[in-house]
Amino acid sequence: MLNLKIQSTTGVILFAAILFCAGCTENPRVDSKGASQTTDNPLTKTWSDLHDGVPSFDQMSLGDLKPALNQAMALNLIEIENIATQSTVPSFDNTIVALERTGKVLDRVFTYYGIWSSNLSSPEFRKIEQEMAPIMSAFFSKISQNQALFERVKTVYDNLDSGTLRADQKRLVKLTYNGFSRNGATLSIIDKNRYTEINQRLAELHTQFGNNVLIDEENYAVFVSESQLGGLPTSLVNAAAAAAKELGKPEMYAITNTRSSMAPFLTFSEQRSLRQQVWSNYYSRGDNGDQYDNNKIIAEILNLRHERVGILGYDNYAQWRLEDRMAKNPENAMALLTAVWPSAIARVLEEVADMQAIADAENIGIKIEPWDYRYYAEKVRKDRYDLDSDEVKQYLQLDKLRQAMFFVAGKLFNFTFTPVAESSVPVFHPDVKVWEVTDKISGNHVGLWYLDPFARKGKRSGAWATSYRSHTSFEGNKTVLSSNNSNFVKAPSGQAVLISWDDATTFFHEFGHALHALSSRVEYPSQNGGVRDYTEFQSQLLERWLMTDEVINNYLVHHQTGEAIPKALVKKIKAAATFNQGFATTEYLASAIMDLKFHTTDPAGIDPDIFERKTLAALNMPKELVMRHRSPHFGHIFSGEGYSAGYYGYMWADVLTSDAAEAFAEAPGGFYDPDVSASLVRHLFTPRNTVDPSDAYRSFRGRDADIKPLMRDRGFPITD
Predict the structure, then answer these.
(1) What was the pLDDT predicted at 97?
(2) Residue 443: which region, alpha, beta or left (left: phi > 0; alpha: psi -120 to 50)?
């Protein structure tokens, strides 16, 4: 998952780097007259000269956050006003490029804000977050609805064809204009005021939604005794013991309310009642009928989003959201999802039948329920492929997988990763490690890569990538500060961290986002952003290198013996590549379809719980599994707007991924073919948002992507 560092809490990605580019030399405070003065607030200070400037994570203090935000926003408004009120004729340089230069102090502050929000959340921060969310929303509205500024941008846009701008500069003008026009700049005063009110309220609701989910993750855990550990692999037992100790019950074993703890427990535990309890805790996040229940929040969010886009003249929220995406409209997105859905649920029925046969043979009188799916799927896997997931896990060491990713980055991108000396670069937690990235050929410094791999209290669940600074060249070359964040369960001291195949795939996925950032060669900051249903493509594609022989043979080694993974086991892994695709595809599609249904339906009087159940029933959703993200904890779409009406984008990107992977498979050098690799980097990684994604893909592949490779990858039937 790509985590955009700068995103309005209203969910409108508002000029991303336009307003918040890094690398400024100022260290200002704004007085009542708008003058800049020196401030000692470490969150606004210019970053150190080390590696072109790095955040002072070692100087973070929560007490500095609100003053820093207020100072930086005030300064940014002055910068904006100076552009809006100038008397010169609007031009690309004095308006569009000028906007690119603003917000550098705020960018630095938001870097720290993002760390507290995602990596170091606490009750104290959440109070600040809840308080500041509507204030920041109002700030964004002041910019997006600045009429004088918009008129200058519009003038440049209207005269776009009469100038001599390069293609990337023309695209920048269009992106800037759309950022205003799609976010209320053309509205009347009355409508602008209501638009702002809606955004402020949405900011509060998004924040509350996300915090409620985090609280339910922190407040629920299942403690088990030694006698209840039957079936659990040693690595999970050790991790559960460590978790219980941290939670104050050293004599017990804790299954925490996160996917990294839940999924392996449901896969291996012989205790059906405990599986049900763990499953119920996880899938009931935000849906427990208490003060942290999110259902009423969802209803209000949907109604406000609908009202807001109605003011802009759209029929529904999804129509507005997808207008500037590759899909262009919700009908195209839904067409893709529904094209795959029948094959997915048909495969689920086959999988359930196979599992039920094993359960029947055990003579225990059960029917497969959602908390049984992973457990009996593992039994089927062992029976059909003689493949034991825990056996595979013994060869999946976190550190070795990281080395494998570096190897791939060296082969495809000519990047070298070198660990920086401990304490030489400030970090926000002892778990965080840092590497310097250089170009293998030139030796030039590309940037730094931060890794925060382990779960802990206050860290949001899942895995994501973000950048503390992106590459730009319009004010001199700025190097990249990229970060990957995961929630692996920490092993006891001295033991290797072993992860599942799915987690290893996710690790490669998020590293793909980091490589996309590190590869950037754009001039203007705002073009480091991306089109949501395209930005997951690069990361999903990198997952494919986990299965290459070069990675398997050199980095998948036993954590105790150091022996390479046996070829027979590899053969089993590859033979089982499409195993359980019914489950994986259906749980994802259910969430993606639900997202679009929520955002194409008139939400008046909606009850999210009833809507979810009725929608799934109409889809003939198999009762043996649930949505990957049930509505009350669907943070992708309700804790902000980054993926709202856009969760389909993972499938859209996967069509591109499967098609592009076949380009490598067909090449003489396979997945390490130098010509295809060079084309990949040149057309699909380096340009970022300087080129329309459809044009970029056609430049790489010579045609549009085809859905057939996706169906082949998942083992689904192909129909003409």
Answers:
(1) 98
(2) left
Give this prediction's pTM: 0.89
Q: Return the pLDDT at 529.
A: 85
Same domain, 24 and 85: yes
> In this structure, are 246 and 153 located in the same domain?
no
Could you give the CA distance from residue 519 to residue 302 in angstroms, rounded to a whole number?
37
Q: From CA 646, how far away is CA 462, in angstroms rounded? A: 18
In a domain, 571, yes or no: no
CA distances from 667 to 14, 407, 664, 672 (A): 41, 20, 5, 9
Domain that holds residue 141: 16-214
The pLDDT score that the predictor gives to residue 18 is 29
Note whether residue 511 is domain-resident.
Answer: no
Burial 296-310 (b: 16+ CB within 10 A, else e): ebbbbbbbbbbebbe
Contact 111, 48 (CB under 8 A): no
pLDDT of residue 30: 37
**pLDDT recorded at residue 720:** 66
- Out of 625, 647, 669, a domain closes at 647
Res 10: pLDDT? 26
| Successive 10-residue mean pLDDT values, the chain, 720 residues | 46 31 32 45 93 95 97 98 97 98 97 97 95 95 95 97 92 96 94 96 96 95 97 93 94 94 96 98 97 98 98 97 95 97 97 98 97 98 93 97 98 98 95 98 97 93 94 95 95 92 96 97 93 91 97 97 96 93 97 98 96 98 98 96 94 96 97 98 96 96 96 88
Torsion of CA 198, 200, 202, 207, to 10 degrees: 180
Give yes or no: residues 121 and 51 share one domain: yes
Give, as one character, the DSSP assignment of residue 2: B
Residue 616 maps to a domain: yes
State whether 251 and 297 are in the same domain: no
According to the model, what pLDDT value does residue 4 have? 52
Tokens matching residue 39:
């401030």
End-to-end CA distance of the chain: 32
What pLDDT shows up at residue 38?
42
Question: Considering its fold, how many domains does the chain have in total?
Answer: 3
pLDDT at site 677: 98
The DSSP code sequence of 95-123 is IIIHHHTS-HHHHHHHHHHHHHHHTS--H
* Spatial CA neighbour of 304 closest among 7, 10, 596: 10
CA distances from 155 to 149, 158, 571 (A): 10, 5, 62
Yes or no: say if 648 and 532 are a contact pair by the CB < 8 Å rule: no
**Structure-block tokens of residue 639:** 């804790």
User: Residue 171, SS3?
Assistant: helix
Tell me if 673 is assigned to some domain.
no
- In 443-514, DSSP assigns E strands to 445-454, 464-469, 480-488
Question: Does 269 lie in the same domain as 298?
Answer: no
Q: Whole-angstrom Cα distance, residue 589 to residue 344? A: 9
Sign of the C-alpha dihedral computed for residues 551, 395, 431 and 422 taken in this order: negative
On whether both 113 and 137 belong to a single domain, the answer is: yes
Question: Which residues sit opposite 437 in a β-bridge?
Answer: 417, 447
Both tokens assigned to 606:
């909606």
Categorise residue 152: left if φ over 0, alpha if ψ from -120 to 50, beta otherwise.
alpha
Q: Within this chain, do residues 45 and 156 fall inside the same structural domain, yes or no? A: yes
Cβ pair 515, 409 in contact under 8 A: yes
* Final residue belonging to a domain, choices 255, 283, 311: 283
